[in-house]
Amino acid sequence: MEIEPKYTFVPFTQKNLIGINNKTVQEFLSKWGIKGNFIIQHFSFNEPFQQYHKYHLVEAFFKDDSVAKELLTKQGNRWVKQGISASNVEIKPVPCSVLNMSFFNKLKDPKNRIVHKSGTICKTYDMELENFLVSDNLRGMLLDQECLEYHLYLKDEREEFIFRIFQILVLGGILCQYEDTLNPYLEVTKAIYKDLVRVQKKEDTDLSVSTIVLQVVAKDSRGQAYFPHDPSHIQNLGFLLIDYVTHEITTFLHQFGEYCLSHLQ
């Protein structure tokens, strides 16, 4: 029987996330009430890694003391290092196979009633779903299982990491100024996805994604979720991304709530 490897995690300086830190992208994130409500951190590990070790790696990561000292979580409107080492970690694989933005072409086709021929998003009667105001077919497609547009994307497509990023952006934060056109959402989705996901070509084979994405809920000794807090909320999401080529781990945590002022280092 193979012994599971014992991992050592080392935090490292923030990478220059070129897409996310782009001035225009930052302006849109601010407009949608998202800026400051997600945090991205980077860690490395040196031990050998096989894909079937992924659940063991994630559990070891959240239970590691050096990670606990560095991991930022949201407290009120600040990001702080709470030093919590997980007692329990719920892990769910997230498909991450999309290689280009043609994945969203269905949204651009006026026949699908998300946008008009002019490119503006189709409005609808206001309704509230999951505490979000749904006033157009784009949000209906994301939240309203009763509407035709919801079924444009199959269940496995909706679970793709790029779709999850897109949904975070479109639903936005508490103070969200929605867009009238689709393109800004797509451009910012692309920028974030490119910063987080590695695409590689192996010899003569086609391109493929070499990043493993897992959705995570980490709980403390009292059984309280802290990564993210209140995971029942559709916009509270924690992801852990494993780059098995470079032996890097990236955490991506989004917490719905007040605009976040800053974080402690």
Question: What do these coordinates show?
Answer:
The protein has 265 residues and is an alpha+beta fold. The protein has 8 helices and 14 strands. It has helices spanning 23-31, 54-63, 65-70, 105-108, 137-143, 155-158, 161-171, 183-196, and strands spanning 9-12, 38-45, 72-75, 78-81, 88-94, 123-129, 132-136, 199-201, 207-209, 211-219, 225-227, 237-243, 248-254, 262-263. The strands form 4 sheets. Strands 1, 2, 5, 10, 11, 12 and 13 form a 7-stranded antiparallel β-sheet that branches. A 3-stranded mixed β-sheet has the order 3-4-14. A two-stranded antiparallel sheet has the order 6-7. Strand 3 (72-75) and strand 4 form a beta hairpin. The longest helix is centred in the C-terminal third of the chain and has 14 residues, at 183-196. The N and C termini lie far apart (42 Å). The model has no long low-confidence stretch (mean pLDDT 91). Keywords: Cell projection, Cytoplasm, Cytoskeleton. Cilium- and flagellum-specific protein that plays a role in axonemal structure organization and motility. May play a role in outer and inner dynein arm assembly. It is found in: Cytoplasm, Cytoskeleton, Cilium axoneme. Belongs to the CFAP300 family.
Q: What is the mean pLDDT? A: 91
Share of residues in helices: 10-25%
H/E element sequence: EHEHHEEEHEEHHHHEEEEEEE
Which spans have pLDDT < 50 for at least 5 consecutive residues?
A: none
Structural class: alpha+beta
Write down the Rg. Answer: 19 Å
DSSP helix count? Answer: 8
Question: How many beta strands in the DSSP annotation?
Answer: 14
Distance between the termini: 42 Å
